[in-house]
Amino acid sequence: MLLAIDIGNTHTKLSLYDGSRHVAGWRLSTNGERTADEFAVTLAALMRGRGLDLGQVTAVAICSVVPPALVPVVTMVRRDLGLEPLVVGPETDTGMPVAYENPRELGADRIANAVAARAEYGAPVIVVDLGTATKWEVVSPDGVYLGGAIAPGVAISLDALVRRAARLSRIELARPHRAIGRSTVEALRAGVLYGFAGQIDAVVDRIQDELGQPAPVVATGGLAPLIAPESRRIEHVDPHLTLKGLRWIHQRLAGSAASASGPAPGETARDRGRPGRA
């Protein structure tokens, strides 16, 4: 089975796949000081809780935007699983051409999202990742990663507001009852949720204008289920999109290694013969 690991700024997400079937998933706090030993113990305990064990993992694919947190994970995989992990980076052949001016600036999670969105929803497609940052990823009609946009995320924006405003306190993010809040809590919820939903829609409208055609919009990230219902443009919510991207990339490379002449699993005829770099 494939263990996919997405190390984000706030959370580390893990999913176990048996082929294309999602077997189990977990979410941990990202901690750059967690050791390989601690990660191994945690993973083993999580798997035991689902009736699984480390010996069932036959491959590992990782993307990370936190270098200090990546090293112990790679160490654990090599030492405790006896596997060489696929760490997605600028040199990984993902099968998706990249039009970014400097591909080395591109976070691995962003290209994984784009790969998964194209595979699952076709092209063109727009991804909105609602995590620590809010990120828009754009795939052209012919399947090229074009780039996107980045803005401060929902949670960190609210945290910054609370820190700077003496009379405001932390609130639980929940769906507001109305746009005209009749208490400070309601006003904050309305401003945050409706405001960020409007921001998402405004950026999507501009992206679609530049594309010259509509494109489906897929939301992912921890806050996607909360924000998506308030958006007029988000059509799909896919919480595991980044992890699915790792699965698609791993399948492509595993298929290429197994047969240099045939298509990789999940690869379309349009993909074959086209150079890719992420």
From TrEMBL:
Residues 268-278 have a biased composition (Basic and acidic residues). Residues 257-278 are annotated as: Disordered. A monovalent cation. Ammonium or potassium. InterPro entries: ATPase_NBD, Type_III_PanK. Its main location: cytoplasm. It is an enzyme of class 2 (transferase). Its EC number is 2.7.1.33. Its cofactor is NH4(+); K(+). The keyword Ubl conjugation does not apply. K(+) binds at residue 129. Pathway: Cofactor biosynthesis; coenzyme A biosynthesis; CoA from (R)-pantothenate: step 1/5. Keywords: ATP-binding, Coenzyme A biosynthesis, Cytoplasm, Kinase, Metal-binding, Nucleotide-binding, Potassium, Transferase. Pfam families: Pan_kinase. GO terms for molecular function: pantothenate kinase activity. Gene3D superfamilies: 3.30.420.40. Coiled coil: none annotated. The active site is at 109 (proton acceptor). Substrate binds at residues 100, 107-110, 184. PANTHER family: TYPE III PANTOTHENATE KINASE. Belongs to the type III pantothenate kinase family. Homodimer. Catalyzes the phosphorylation of pantothenate (Pan), the first step in CoA biosynthesis. This is Type III pantothenate kinase. It comes from Thermaerobacter composti.
